[in-house]
Amino acid sequence: MDTRVAGSTFWLIMAQAFLPPGRPEVAAAFVDGLAEDLAELALPLDLDIANELAEFSTAASGFIEPQSLLVEYSRVFLPPNGLTTLNASRYVDGSINGPCMDALENAYLAAGIEQRDTLRDLKDHVAMQMECMAWLIGQDESEQRLSADDFAQICLVGALPRFAAALVSEAPESPYTPLVQIAAKAIASHADTDETTETTKRGANRRHDTSLGVWRLCKSCEKPFAREKEIQIMTRALEQAGLPAEHLSLCPDCRDAVKGFFTRAIK
Known about the structure:
Layout: H1 3-17, H2 24-32, H3 34-45, H4 50-60, H5 68-77, H6 90-93, H7 99-111, H8 126-138, H9 148-154, H10 156-170, H11 176-187, E1 215-217, E2 224-227, H12 228-240, H13 252-266
Antiparallel strand pairs: 1-2
Helix pairs in contact: 1-3, 1-8, 4-11, 7-12, 10-11
């Protein structure tokens, strides 16, 4: 199996795995066949996921009863009491109405992709983004209007490692936890590897992370809050759509503080 076919198949399978397992046959495939499929795809993709697959298989084996996986999916992901969220933009800029969502909508438009009626969720749902990755990787380069690498940089590269960390903290025994860790390892191959930095007066405060890259510092509080590459891509997408991008210089907390100030002032 060549790398392009393997990559497209991998992300399509992952997209299906993060949809609600409502049908018994879907849940059975998750428990009995998913680990084997991912192990086969790991070879052409050069993914070292043996430990995560072993953890997944052990955790998934506890959900062989009908509907038990759907109950687990609801416990971990679904509102109002879900432990984490499948809306990945929250892991990038702290909300579902921020610049990440704007950039994703522009990316789908550029790629010619529309959301199916069967997915009744926001456009930043990880399953939709993963299916978009599968579509983009499967296309010939001559047909691409948007590359998989560029799309991955908008949200998934920054979001999936944070999503995995949230699951490790909130649901360490869930089969979805090693599954997101696998996705985070796979998306790293689409990350921008150029992490050279400039020497600035804030250079001593700039933080590096081998999985997320160089971070943008908030203009107000000076804390790192998003990968520099993510901010650049979002800024470009917003400007192309004729939308303001000045708010990207602030972290989500400082944006909320500014928004709250003006709300109080108006009242």
